[in-house]
Task: inverse folding
């Protein structure tokens, strides 16, 4: 069985078991998230992420140490993937309009995102939580 067919079959099975389609999951993720991403040479980066309809997002990244911030807009999507250990994971992929570097977050559930490293393994010190009104 090809890997594409296998992924499609697993996505369908996940949807049947949980009653959740990818479109339904996407609509559940729309909202405002905030948290702290780690930083090599600073205490951390405050993240303010808004996942919007039509797969658009707006993010603000602000240094906790210096008065430096960066804003970006782009497209987001959910992808089924594997981490370096071969474990099946669902990933939120942020694709900025002005950069070729994607940002990847593990979907822990529909209210919690965890930053992934280049091997698609979770960075434990980095979690974004959905702000629930």
Result:
């Amino acid at each position: 069985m090809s890997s594409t067919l296998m992924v499609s079959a697993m996505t369908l099975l996940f949807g049947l078991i949980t009653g959740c389609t990818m479109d339904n999951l996407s609509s559940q993720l729309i909202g405002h998230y905030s948290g702290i991403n780690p930083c090599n040479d600073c205490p951390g980066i405050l993240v303010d992420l808004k996942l919007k309809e039509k797969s658009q997002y707006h993010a603000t990244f602000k240094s906790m140490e210096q008065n430096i911030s960066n804003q970006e807009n782009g497209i987001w999507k959910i992808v089924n993937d594997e981490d370096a250990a071969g474990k099946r994971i669902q990933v939120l992929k942020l694709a900025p309009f002005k950069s070729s570097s994607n940002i990847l977050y593990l979907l822990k559930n529909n209210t919690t995102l965890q930053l992934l490293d280049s091997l698609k393994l979770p960075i434990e010190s980095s979690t974004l939580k959905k702000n629930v009104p």
